[in-house]
Amino acid sequence: MAYVSIADRDHEIEHHDPETFITKYIWSQDHKVIAIQYGGLAILIGLVGMIMSSMFRLQLGFPDTFAFINPENYYQLVTIHGMIMVIYLLTALFLGGFGNYLIPLMCGSRDMVFPFMNMLSVWVYAVSVIILVVSFFVPGGATGAGWTLYPPQAISPGTPGTDWGILLMLISLAVFIVAFTMGGLNYVTTVLQARCKGMTLMRMPLSVWAIFVATILGLLAFPALLVAAIMMMLDRTLETSFFMPAILQAGEVSNYSGGSPVLFQHLFWFFGHPEVYIVALPAFGLVSDILSTHARKNIFGYRMMVWAILAIGGLSFIVWAHHMYVSGMNPYFGFFFATTTLIIAVPTAIKVYNWVLTLWQGNIHLRAPMLFAIGFIFTFTHGGLSGLFLGNVTIDLPLSDTYFVVAHFHMVMGVSPVLVVFGAIYHWYPKMTGRMYNETMAKWHFWLTFLGTYSLYLPMHYVGFLGLPRRYFSMGDTAFMPESAVTLNTSMSISALIIAATQVLFLYNIIVSLKKGEKAGPNPWKATSLEWQTPSPPKHGNWGHSLPEVHRWAYDYSVPGQEEDYIPQTVPATDVPVGRDHGVDH
Amino acid sequence: MYLTLIFLGVIMATVITWLLRQTLNTQPWVSQPADDAVTGVSINTNTKTVALTVFLTVATSIFALFISAYTIRMEEPDWRPVAEPVLLWFNTAVLILASIAYHWTRNAAVSGVQGRLKPGLFVSGALTILFLVGQLVAWQQLNAAGYYVERNVANSFFYLLTAVHGLHMLGGMWVWARSTIRVWSGADADSVRLSIELCTVYWHFLLLVWIVLFGVLLST
Ligand code: HEM
Ligand SMILES: [Cu+2]
């Protein structure tokens, strides 16, 4: 090997590693263990969310067939599915999982700056997950209010789970926010203050940039959810009237008066829209690094990518009301929010062009992580385009609350980030475990998931156009739904089940490869960023006795005239081995 | 939402401008010796101060959102303003004194005057507790006057805002308790200096928040 990696540099490092099983794997303060705890728990609860979706897809595809699904638990399943996927899976996995794992390693730090708080963060997150799960087993069951939890119906009799379910949901969210804030303080401070020598901000891999900005978004946006949750809890328990208007409940006049449901919508979406970018930005970052590594090319327009991340972050706070076009807002507001919404498409599109241009004339290796990354470009572009439809008020009005919206946000926030999650897990699997996953199985996993999601969500746009409303237990006989659309619904359900079943491949692969996988070595992808220059899996303290020093950005792939097609960030300009074909441009 | 928007606008503008300044005029693809020498510390202070600053932003965002919600909900016709108890003026004065006391303690810690730490911490803590008790008494007075939480949303907001502020104070008291215990068990000024300094900032912050909240409550 041409480069001496940190991995081979010191064998003699003695860190006071945690000794017992408990301090090593359970109450661990090591960011890598915490990352895997965060990620593992997120994937576990994500599987629950996936099984839920299979269950309600059964109802949608085959109405009146399955007795175990009734309107009540249908709504509960849909609600908790949405909540789990957006918050407890994706947010936790990207920031708690990948953020924790990659930030210190990519920045060249030994750990997060506040390891104890980091440990608290994961355990508080676990508590929030437990509360969420418990809510299924309390009297009345989990809430069935839809993941947006709109009042008044979220806390009015008739909706499932108005006794305890909704309370536990709100408490669980509040607890999650506490966990997130503890994690977030760590991520931001670590990126700002604990990078190694030579790691200027503009030498950070895009993964770090993206997770960093997503964390800032989260820190500023989650408070809105917290505020809304607290006020809704009071409406539910003390019968205050923050959100609840005077209404009849079960035929009786309630104690509520004058509350403003639209206020809740403002608060919710003030959180909700930045939230979609809290999930999307880390996906953008990870995908950039995967593409560049497996195409053996520097990322196209690095600075532009960073600026786009910043621009998207800033803009994502001023578009929230595009979720509320049908709430009866002033047309000028509608105009304003449509404009900002369409503007945010510009930096987003820049990123897409840059990914594609990174592939241009690259030396593309179609390994599983790369397949997932390229798949992401497709699904994300599709989702982004349907977003442009919805961003226009006049087009949105008929489409709002139809399956078109469901298709849009699943393309853009369901499928796309999940493809990145898989790609990133395969990409960093050798680093995290020291072993390779099974490539063939991973490729099958990709194609089945990718084609499966297309066969599920493309038709969904179409039934949305036909006017099929979302959040209906069953449609019965409706004049505007032709027979063919009903058949389509069945086929979508079958796709959903196939996709769900496919994920067994993934689980099997990552579990069995832990023991059976080939030994990976420190740098199987010949990647440049710091984490690949240390042993796989990295030891406690990450770097042995001396911290790494950085001499270049993370994208020196295929530099002309060099012997190897990559130069690690740790290699000084003077030490780059020159190839025999020096000076020949290829 | 205007308030929150303005607040967020300012935060985002600051963050983005700051970050942009780091990214302009760089050529990341060139391996420059000047960059090699850069340490990985972006802000010239310690990590705890950075974390506190970030946390204060989060807390400000919570209060700004509550106030936004307040101003939006206020527009509805059922709003009946609360007659704030006079006691709140007294509480405000107490909180100002607590802030001053903390600052005095901080000065002692910074200049290493060991002898002033104990009385300083004691007085700041006592005043803060007095403030919290005062707030509880104000609640009781309101309740006794018939301003129940659920009777009108203006009342609900009053209890809610004061409670959230009080909880933040309690959180601060936890850190206060830790430094106090350390000082009583013989820690020297230098080892508690940072914790006292940061608490002082936090106390000033909560004083400012309280003044804003009180202003909003009084004026509506
Ligand atoms: C090009 C950029 C985008 C535009 C113009 C856009 C526009 C919209 C609009 C107007 C709606 C509201 C539709 C309605 O309810 O009637 C919507 C819904 C949604 N969008 Fe996007 N979007 C974009 C990108 C994204 C991204 C990147 C994500 C996530 C990663 C996302 C996630 C969502 C979600 C979750 C919803 C639906 C929430 C719900 O009602 O349950 N969007 N989008
Ligand atoms: Cu949105």
A few lines on this structure:
The complex is a heterodimer of chains A (586) and B (220). Chain A has 586 residues and is mainly α. In chain A, 61% of the residues lie in helices and 1% in strands.
What key attributes describe this structure?
heterodimer, A: 586 residues, mainly alpha, Cytochrome C Oxidase, Chain A, two-stranded antiparallel ribbon, 15 helices, 61% helix, 1% strand, globular, disordered C terminus, B: 220 residues, Four Helix Bundle (Hemerythrin (Met), subunit A), 7 helices, 77% helix, flat, binds protoporphyrin IX containing FE, binds copper (II) ion
What does this structure look like?
The complex is a heterodimer of chains A (586) and B (220). Chain A has 586 residues and is mainly alpha-helical. Chain A has one domain (34-245, 256-575): Cytochrome C Oxidase, Chain A. Chain A is 61% helix and 1% strand. A two-stranded antiparallel sheet of chain A has the order 1-2. The longest helix of chain A has 37 residues, at 71-107. Chain B has 220 residues and is mostly helical. Chain B has helices at residues 2-23, 33-36, 47-74, 87-110, 117-144, 153-184, 189-219. In chain B, α3 (47-74) packs parallel to α7. The longest helix of chain B has 32 residues, at 153-184. The mean pLDDT of chain B is 92. At the A-B interface, α6, α7, α8 and α9 of A face α1, α2, α3 and α6 of B. Protoporphyrin IX containing FE is lined by residues 148, 276, 279-280, 322-323, 341, 344-345, 348, 384, 387-388, 390-391, 396, 400, 405, 408-409, 412-413 of chain A. The site of protoporphyrin IX containing FE has 22 residues of chain A, from α8, α10, α11 and α13.
